[in-house]
Structure of LysR family transcriptional regulator:
Amino acid sequence: MDSQLLRTFLEVARTRHFGRAAGNLYLTQSAVSARIRQLEEAVGAALLERNRREVRLTAAGERFARHAAQLLVAWTRACEDVQRGEDAVSIGCGAPAGLWERPLGDWLARLSLYYGQLALNAEAQSAEVVLRRLGEGALDLAFVCEPPTLDGCTLREVARCRLRLVSTRADCTPPEALGEGFVLIDWGVSLQAELRRHFAEMPTPRLRVATGRQALYHLRQCGGAAYVEETLAARGCGEGGLYEVAGAPVLERQVYAVYAFANARIVLLEQMLGEF
């Protein structure tokens, strides 16, 4: 079966819209429709119900969607294994973008130095997407800041990140820093709740970014403040123009690795996590 048919079906199932699926896949809408018809003929069942307002999965489509994701992952991995040769071991990892700065960036560098047989694929996605792809088998390891409850998976704390409040004003107080110019970096929903506990009067942040580097660049261009991972915060202050806000609480985020019990590479995964 053509893997492109599976990819097209999964995108239509995700978006529930032929036009949006076509745009995301850089295809015409008629090409998407043709692929879906071809897939339905191959499967021998109608997978989608179409009307002017929406697209729905049939009962057969709901069942097939679970298999389609696994088939696509298996096909992709098979192609990668063939292309990389006998000695390479393909490992897929995913995390929110900010975690790849610290601490995952350092961990990835150590793996590259000491595990020469690995063919690593590091994805930057939202925590929700990373965990979904782990469940589909597209990833071997997922890294998140908020521990999920997933059947059949192991949860392991691998690192802790300390966040320090920095500002472009040397005399800024903590309440002032959490005012209109505060930039929120995505460290999970629980961080927002913790900020509310410390700063009950803080307004809703007008800008949210994925990484510390994005936040620091914005601060240098526009001014303001942000809670930044302490290594990046120290570097930013050392370069000038940024100051740690005196009296601000230091916040801490746990980083968890999530992986499936049934993963055939579980021994290797645990060895890799030992490099933290």
